[in-house]
Design brief:
The protein is α+β, with helices and mostly antiparallel strands. The chain has 2 domains: about 170 residues, Glutaredoxin; about 50 residues, Arc Repressor Mutant, subunit A, CATH 1.10.10. The chain has 13 helices and 7 strands. A 4-stranded mixed β-sheet has the order 2-1-3-4, with helices on both faces. It has a 3-stranded antiparallel β-sheet with strand order 5-7-6. Helix 5 runs antiparallel to helix 6 and helix 5 crosses helix 9. It is globular and about 80 Å long. The N and C termini lie far apart (about 50 Å).
């Protein structure tokens, strides 16, 4: 017998019963009351190093906050004098060993030799392209562009200040690379970037990466440099004034790779709390062989669709 056909003569409800005749229901999603500003730059090696941690933080706790990347302007141009004498950076060739050190330490691979052979002259051009994509399309596509630019620069040793390289990266996003790079070269492109520089100054940021979390009372937490995953979670608890947070379930590796398109071993390890030695078995268990390619670069494994 189909109980859905039974109607209660007293309440006038047809169905399985048990419903309140009148109740208040809130169909709104929880309001994201926290702004998380990520002040960064396309050629920031430590920003590349924290990609695994930031991805997991966004995947598990992104329902609590709005994630707002801000371009910080790491390198306008190489001049005659030292750019960063405190770290021994006087010219582009000095960057290469520093980047390699960051890559080895973080296990997010960095070649760096292009800074000797064909150096990035400024981080402003790829930053302007980011801002134009953000303005003309959306935050998600702009952030994907930033990721692809960093892959091209750090792992695959391409000069992402070169217009032809930027055009190719944007084209692969399904956008008109030539038109976007051309627009980014106009004064309006620099104006968009200047707005981010002003925001970074207002946030009191002096280095990259820096995460600033601000709540509705305009109070917050600022964390400079790369931090462990737990530090970002603790910072979020602090600005939300909560003892415990409810993380979202981790995505399957299949859906994560579908979305991200390329993942380095370290990124999978951080997302799923794995040891490096467990990666191959985990990937074989989670993905059918026809769904991915495994490749190696600079001694590190990476996986693509």
């Amino acid at each position: 017998m189909n109980n859905n056909m039974i109607c209660d003569l007293e309440t006038g409800v047809c169905g399985t019963g048990g419903e309140e005749v009148m109740e208040i229901v809130d169909f709104n999603q929880p309001k994201k009351s926290i702004e998380v500003y990520y002040v960064t730059d396309p050629i920031c090696s430590h920003c590349w190093a924290i990609e695994p941690v930031l991805r997991r933080f966004k995947e598990q706790y992104g329902h609590y906050f709005n994630f707002l990347p801000v371009m910080g302007g790491l390198l306008e141009k190489w001049g005659d004098g030292p750019v960063d004498p405190a770290n021994g950076i006087y010219g582009p060739a000095d960057v290469a060993p520093h980047w390699r050190e960051v890559g080895v330490h973080s296990r997010m691979p960095i070649d760096g030799s292009l800074m000797i052979d064909n150096p990035v002259q400024s981080s402003f051009p790829p930053s302007r392209v980011y801002k134009v994509i953000q303005k003309n399309h959306n935050d998600a596509l702009a952030y994907e562009y930033l990721r692809r630019a960093r892959e091209a620069l750090f792992a695959f040793n391409q000069n992402i200040s070169d217009p032809s390289v930027m055009i190719e990266i944007v084209n692969k996003l399904g956008l008109d690379g030539e038109a976007i790079v051309k627009e980014a070269e106009q004064p309006a492109g620099q104006q968009l970037l200047n707005e981010d520089f002003g925001l970074a100054r207002n946030l009191g940021v002096r280095g990259f990466p820096t995460i600033v979390m601000i709540n509705q009372e305009n109070k917050g937490v600022k964390m400079a440099g790369g931090r462990p995953f737990e530090s970002y979670v603790d910072g979020l608890k602090q600005v939300l004034n909560l003892e415990e947070l409810q993380p979202k379930p981790l995505p399957s590796l299949s859906s994560l790779l579908e979305k991200e398109k390329l993942l380095f071993s370290k990124e999978i390890e951080v997302m799923y709390d794995l040891e490096q030695s467990d990666i191959n078995a985990f990937v074989e268990q989670e993905l059918s062989q026809d769904r991915y390619h495994k490749k190696e670069i600079l001694g590190e494994s990476y996986f693509t669709k």
